[in-house]
# Entry
Amino acid sequence: MGEAGYDGRRLEQWLAGEARADGFSRRDVMRLSASLGLAALPGLGLTEQSVTADGPILKPLPPELFQVFGTNAETRWEALRDVGYLVPVDRFFVRNHTLTPRVDADTWRLRLYGTGLRGAPTLDSPVEFTYRQLRDLPAETLTAYVECAGNGRSFFAGQQQQSVSGTAWKLGAVGVARWRGVRLSTVLKRAGLTRSAVDVQPVGLDPDFVSGGVNLGPVRRPLPVGKALDDVLLAYEMNGEPLPPDHGFPVRLVVPSWIGIASIKWVGRIEVSDTPLFSPWNTQFYRLFGATYPPEGELVGRQTVKSAFELAWGAQLSAGHKHVLTGRSWSGNGRVRAVEVSTDGGATWRPARPTGLGLARAWQRWEFAWRPPAPGAYTLRARASDVTGATQPDVVPHNSFGYLFGGVVRHPVTVV
Ligand SMILES: Nc1nc2c(c(=O)[nH]1)N[C@H]1C(S)=C(S)[C@@H](COP(=O)(O)O)O[C@H]1N2
Ligand SMILES: [Mo]
# Structure
């Protein structure tokens, strides 16, 4: 069965679920079925994966916790000031290409197939795991951040006067959670992983992504087998609870230190291949295109170094009083080694004091006491360096999609 065949089958599943949903536009389904040359008849074949949906994001998005951008919601950094190391689900950012599907864990199956598995099973006769079977495999916990490749994108325009396309995130498209699940390596080995496997591609059960009128199929991105076997988790719990629908229920990937798109949510199938795999998410998107990059672009994998204050954008502080500024820094290369803060436009820098844990795949919290001398407008800057010596530059080379803004962010505050 070719790729169009898979999409057709998926569409049947979606239509079957659609009978019980009233949110996701039936028009989209019709348009999609027309583009695939299929008859969009109700009650087509029946589904093994029951999927429905009723809105882009299901959890509440109160304005004091989130800034909403279409199908995405950014965490407000001031909402992290009084929470601990982990970001609670009620304020964890959401990045959806389309919308949050509701997946029924009882009928859900994880299907593995492809030429990188023993006997090269096809999608018609895949190796399957039920939710129960996955939960019965040896479990591990992992405290790690998920961060969108576009986190900080708005600063290409805001600080460098460069135009980029995509959601204009500030720094709130990141969150640390404690994930629990089974190692992807465990599942791959049980499914018959061979030595010739090179790529592993998880595929989401959310609706196909349509961009510029073109249906790009389900959200999916190949992962090299080396990373897949290293520290990747198939997670079914987040902060001690079953994964919430918006964050990938019943099962998502958590690919530590890599850009968020690697951490595919609502995984329905995984292709394991002995030849390299391609999808729009590693050929068209999530590559760096720009003057300092090769014409075919540079593939994005690991995240950069970033820092954020747990402070509202444009916060007001009173002059002459001591304020304890707090924030967090993280890096895709490993632990954060040092953080410095400047309150005078970058002229002088003083060390921030690290507080609590500083895990390699998560972040380092810190604090910095500041007594603003006089009323006026100030910009605060925080700059971290990590174990590899990587730090945050003042200017980031431009790329057209505005990925990996690892520069020092100028955070405006008003002292009154
Ligand atoms: N199936 C699927 N997985 C997905 C996405 C998606 O739209 N569909 N978005 C990706 C992107 S771009 C990011 S940044 C993270 C966001 O994870 P979160 O919504 O749990 O914060 O999920 C990734 N996994
Ligand atoms: Mo993302």
